[in-house]
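Below is one such protein, fold included:
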Amino acid sequence: MAALALAPPDQSVETLALQYRQGAALARVAWNPHLYDPLLRRRLGRIATPTLLCWGAHDKVAPIAPCGETWAREIPGARLRVFADSGHVPHLEEPEAVAEAVCEFVRLRGGAA
C-alpha cells in the first residue's frame, strides 16, 4: 500500500515515459556497484552546512546501520533523525513528522521556520 501511495495519480503515456527515462538515468549512474560510491565516505567530511539526516527506520535501500550511522558520524555536526513508520522516503511516508523535524532543526539554528 505504501508503494501505491507514492505512485503518481497520472498514469498517462507521458508520465510513464518520464518515469522510464528517470529510472534509466538512475540505472546508468548507480547500477554498478549497486548504489554505492566508494568516494562518498571521504566526501561527507567536507560538508560544512548544518545537516539534518531524515532516515526511515525501515529503510531497506540504505539501512540506518551502516548508512545513516556512518553519514551522521562522518558529516561534522550532523543530526540523525529516525522516523519509526518510514522506509526509504520518510518525507513522503511521514510528511508532517519530517516537516516538523525540519522546522525544529531550523529554529534551533536561529532561522525562521
The longest helix spans residues 13-30. The chain has six helices and two strands. The chain has a mean pLDDT of 87.
